[in-house]
Design a protein that fits this description.
435 residues, alpha/beta, Spore Coat Polysaccharide Biosynthesis Protein SpsA, Chain A, 2 domains, 9-stranded mixed sheet, two-stranded antiparallel ribbon, 48% helix
Length: 435
Amino acid sequence: MERMTAANASVVGEGASVTAIIPTYNRANYLGIAISSVLAQNYTPVQVIVVDDGSNDNTREIVAKFASPVEYVAKENGGKSSALNLGLRHARGRFIWIFDDDDIAEPDALRKLVIALQENPRCGFAYGDYDLFAMEEGKMQKAPVRLPSVRPEDLYLAIMERSFILQQGMLVRKDCYEQVGSFDENLIRSQDLDMMLRLARRYTGVKVPGIMFHHRQHTGVRGSKASPVLAKRSVEGWVKSDREIFGRIYATHALRDFLPYGPSPGELNEEQRFTCLLQRSCILARKGLWNEAAQDFRHAREVAWKMGKTRLSQDQTSILRRMFDLFSYAPHTFESAAEFRRALGEMRPKQLQRDMRTAVLWSLPFSVGAALLHRQYKNAGRFICVYFALATPLAMARSLFSPSFFSAGLQLLRHRSSDLATDENRKRATTPSAA
């Protein structure tokens, strides 16, 4: 592809200067590839700031191999958030691209993101998809990531449920970062989710089609020098930080903020209150805040009794079906869910309880299957334990034999067949033909 220079910058627009920030800590073995992929963009950043967060490997020597626009900024180790905040203070571009030191950018990513923000001046950020990769015998083995299709008005709620927008695949106006405040330096993990939530609550995002970057899978240590996180303990680190983030959200957000299709400007009616309580309970359960989720279920029971509600709506069913999907931390923390289990058992009337129990169970068989498919046997065991802890014979039958369950199963099989075909085509494309 042709590199975007001053001569053809008009394709993007005037004043579309980009600063890329790459925080790094002891990743010299990956860092050079990440920097090279940022510099190889066909719309080149005016500034690439590598913030060295107290590395004791040869990071400085790796960065020294690159000329302008790469800049090296060193600091004492304080964690990724402090590195990002320092990088933002040095940034000169109108747009900010935060990129990880172990990933690889697609050559056309930055041009697509810049154009999206230029064409949508009311949007604060643009974002795109990514895939996963690992290096095996010198070859990049990729795996697709199926991201949810989200309505713009539901983006904030969707990110609360699942952190599916990653900073490496998004471009943000610098003044948006200035308005929402700095990265939380008390968070060892999930600082990107915390920032993403603050941005999405205040600004509209625009989705860009295509893969923006390739997300490396490896077993290196995460976190800071003071609080290192082993790869096998990553979920524990995320759960701890997410509980802190969503504890704050629970304490500071109004119930109306959890209404699908955007928050209600006025007073909620009883049906809306019930929906918001289910949505907030689902989010809290996914993050391991079980006592708060149980409290919302009990409030929902009171609202349902007051309005004579006996059945779930389609939207309410969909909310509860997402509680235990493959991306939920709920199975990892389910030992703390005793109050939630009691609150579900106390739900009245009985017909409403059956609907809710059936909806909560619905995704668990798919999660078990997906975990087994990816050889995540411990996760599969967790999902199975949750299933039998919450199941009743009637709820199991209603869940497993519902038309929607069969339809979703067929759709997953089609996706899996498509993924296998894609993987096979990639292997053929990278295998030398016989002479």
